[in-house]
Design goal:
single chain, 290 residues, alpha+beta, four-stranded antiparallel sheet, three-stranded antiparallel sheet
Length: 290
């Protein structure tokens, strides 16, 4: 028998697990998951599957249509601090635009490390003059998880001369503007992931011109043509070579700023077995035994 109870507050879900009122919970904050390690009768399951944090910059909206501004942002982010303070070490720097666990993943030669001096130089070269109007949008309901990350990003951007306002939006409005209207200028995203376990599928979903989840209105002929050439390629080596070309181009263009890949986690009673990762990140009850 399964009793599925909706408990909106993560702190209440944590308490229910600690007291034995619940045998399984998910979507706690990284800090809360860390607090459970070593707790009697509680286990924490963790896998780096396909969840990530990245920065969207809309190609149809200034100043994000300026590649030097995008490059400046990519070099401004203190990735290590986000991993330490927002994810409590339960994340790693994301080096490409598709999940590192997926077939066809490739690490591009073009990488963006934390380099404030270079970020300032790129911003100056872009010609953009900050007027204080920039907003960084994120899902309001995820404040407990995203709050530390967006606060760090805001501070990092301020350090190079970009004063952004934090702009939390309700989930429904965020989703509508990002995936339907596609008019969000600048946003933090930790919820979009390709559930098809393949780098080619991720490319088709997010980066092909007019792609279903191409939320940044990104378009590049090299990416489109290369994907078309390998879409039906049966030779794995040739297909992976094409995917590597695509991932290099995405990095050069800063199609978005990959920040970190973070662990999908569950907290559960030690009497419960069968927790299994699936690419939609949903628990299958038929996997479980107690």
């Amino acid at each position: 028998k399964i009793v599925l109870r909706k408990v909106p507050q993560a702190a209440n879900r944590l308490a229910a697990l600690r007291t034995g009122a619940a045998q399984l919970t998910e979507r706690l904050t990284p800090k809360q998951f860390a607090s459970l390690k070593g707790v009697k009768n509680v286990s924490v399951g963790s896998v780096v599957g396909n969840e990530s944090l990245f920065l969207n910059m809309n190609y149809k909206i200034a100043p994000w249509d300026n590649i030097k501004v995008r490059q400046a942002v990519a070099h401004a982010i203190n990735y290590d601090k986000i991993i330490k303070n927002a994810y409590y070490g339960q994340a790693k720097k994301w080096k490409s635009h598709v999940p590192s666990t997926y077939p066809g993943y490739s690490v591009p030669k073009t990488q963006y490390s934390y380099d404030p001096a270079k970020a300032k130089a790129l911003l100056a070269a872009s010609g953009y003059k900050d007027d204080g109007s920039l907003k960084l949008t994120y899902v309001a309901e995820k404040e407990s998880t995203l709050g530390p990350a967006v606060t760090q990003i805001k501070a990092d951007l301020k350090a190079i001369g970009l004063n952004v306002q934090l702009d939390p939006l309700p989930q429904t409005q965020f989703g509508d503007r990002q995936l339907t209207k596609r008019d969000l200028p600048f946003a933090v995203n930790d919820q979009e992931k390709p559930i098809g376990v393949d780098a080619g599928y991720a490319t088709y979903l997010f980066f092909i011109t007019g792609g279903l989840n191409n939320m940044d209105n990104y378009s590049n002929k090299v990416v489109d043509d290369t994907y078309k050439a390998i879409a039906t390629e049966a030779d794995t080596a040739k297909r992976n070579a094409g995917l590597a070309v695509i991932q290099e181009q995405l990095a050069k263009d800063v199609a978005w700023v990959p920040v970190v890949e973070f662990a999908t986690q569950w907290a559960f009673s030690k009497k419960l077995t069968g927790i299994t990762w699936h690419p939609d990140n949903c628990v299958r009850f038929f996997d479980l035994k107690i």
